[in-house]
Prior knowledge:
Layout: E1 6-10, H1 11-31, E2 38-42, H2 44-48, H3 52-58, E3 64-67, H4 70-78, E4 85-87, H5 96-102, E5 106-109, H6 112-120, E6 127-132, H7 144-159, E7 163-169, H8 182-192, E8 200-201, H9 205-210, E9 223-225, E10 251-263, E11 268-269, E12 275-276, E13 281-286, E14 303-306, E15 309-314, E16 322-325, E17 337-341, H10 348-354, H11 359-364, E18 372-375
Parallel strand pairs: 1-18, 2-3, 2-9, 3-4, 4-5, 5-6, 6-7, 7-8, 8-9
Antiparallel strand pairs: 1-10, 10-13, 10-17, 11-12, 13-16, 14-15, 14-17, 15-16
Helix pairs in contact: 1-3, 6-7, 7-8
GO molecular function: alanine racemase activity; pyridoxal phosphate binding
Pfam family, one: Ala_racemase_C
Catalytic activity: L-alanine = D-alanine
Amino acid sequence: xxxxxxxxxxxxxxxxxxxxxxxxxxxxxxxxxxxxxxxxxxxxxxxxxxxxxxxxxxxxxxxxxxxxxxxxxxxxxxxxxxxxxxxxxxxxxxxxxxxxxxxxxxxxxxxxxxxxxxxxxxxxxxxxxxxxxxxxxxxxxxxxxxxxxxxxxxxxxxxxxxxxxxxxxxxxxxxxxxxxxxxxxxxxxxxxxxxxxxxxxxxxxxxxxxxxxxxxxxxxxxxxxxxxxxxxxxxxxxxxxxxxxxxxxxxxxxxxxxxxxxxxxxxxxxxxxxxxxxxxxxxxxxxxxxxxxxxxxxxxxxxxxxxxxxxxxxxxxxxxxxxxxxxxxxxxxxxxxxxxxxxxxxxxxxxxxxxxxxxxxxxxxxxxxxxxxxxx
Length: 376
Ligand SMILES: *Cc1c(COP(=O)(O)O)cnc(C)c1O
């Protein structure tokens, strides 16, 4: 028998979350009599740890898929995905363009080097690109004063038959916080104004949920949003839970109690003896540790659900085990189910917060050794 830990991926939760995003965009479009944008469901990092196959099943109603890894993109095509696929970091070397060509991928272009590689490539068809502006995040993209010449270069490549559509793209650094989107959006609008028409893509989850109106199409340019985290049922916001957003957790991490210890006052728990009982306590040992992807920085007090009752983690998380306080949880024994996060557990965002990180990191870091079950 394998250890009792396992993750469940709910395909219906994935589709539900896509629906939540779709409805939000439709409402925003109706409010201004515009057209709702199309959705590139972001499935990078093995669909935020959920698996590409589950994502393909859950996001079949999305217009497109977006990711970084060429192998993941190829897998989507080979699994029969016929819609657009966007490479969020573009391609890295000339040989990648053969795959872009063969599998009909749309690519982000964010450097002059990529334009050079396109100019030298021998391809069987035109490549659709999204030309990326660095609107202030200073991660990927052409600086505002370099963007229009990059765009002109792309247009020349289109005239030469190398490129197909040339879209405009940027990424927000602070859409989830008080700084919001206004500053970078203004940069984007002033830099891209009058350059020529093509698809536009600016919104991640936070911007899509909080500022859906900026993705509403009023003219003839097609807008595309790029939500990721919210599709998996976690929140992009510190001040708003996934539940409050109407999202359902797609990944549930569960295990069982595999040992029980009865402690007297002064007894200590785990490595470093960081927790000491100040009263008689009952402790459960759970088959889940940091080698499963549970964060080691989650300290005493991190919420955890044992046998349906919410309690707390105590002491340090080990590689393969962690300890929970059973003092106020009745009728727990070896084999009692434990919910680490997800459906009927704490939210992944609560666990992340207790560990000083974000839900994204925990979902992506689910360890390969954890068996995954898919439910419809
Ligand atoms: C990861 C990513 C997204 C999705 O971000 P979320 O915060 O998960 O919605 C969108 N666009 C780009 C360029 C990304 O890298």
